[in-house]
């Protein structure tokens, strides 16, 4: 059994405290339990891209030993 996994989600929202709401396209479930790290370059770029509002954003969440964080994102059509 692997201790590392990754999953893609659609970004729905980022709240004022930095928690992201993500949509699982396979199950249509949402989750809001991942917080952006404020000193992270990817977090700042994701926040800026989200604020621009120019389309949907797909994020990749990496889970290692039970800890999850957003590792990448991309704009989608």
Task: Describe what you observe in this structure.
With 77 residues, this protein is of the alpha+beta class. The protein has one domain: Beta Barrel (OB fold (Dihydrolipoamide Acetyltransferase, E2P)), CATH 2.40.50. The chain is 16% helix and 53% strand. It is built from one helix and five strands; from the N terminus they run E-E-E-H-E-E. It has a five-stranded antiparallel sheet, with helices on one face. It is globular. The termini are far apart. It comes from Rotaria magnacalcarata. InterPro entries: IF5A-like, IF5A_C, NA-bd_OB-fold.
What is the count of helical runs?
A: 1
CATH class identity? Mainly Beta
CA-to-CA gap between the ends? 35 Å
CA-atom Rg in angstroms: 12 Å
The stretches of 5 or more residues where confidence is low (pLDDT under 50) are: none
Strand order of the largest sheet: 3-2-1-4-5
Average pLDDT works out at: 94
Q: In the residues, how many domains can be counted?
A: 1
Structural class: alpha+beta
GO molecular function, one term: ribosome binding
Pfam family, one: eIF-5a
Organism: Rotaria magnacalcarata
Protein name: Translation initiation factor 5A C-terminal domain-containing protein
Which labels suit this protein?
ribosome binding; IF5A_C; OB fold (Dihydrolipoamide Acetyltransferase, E2P); 5-stranded antiparallel sheet; RNA binding; 5 strands; translation elongation factor activity; single chain; 77 residues; globular
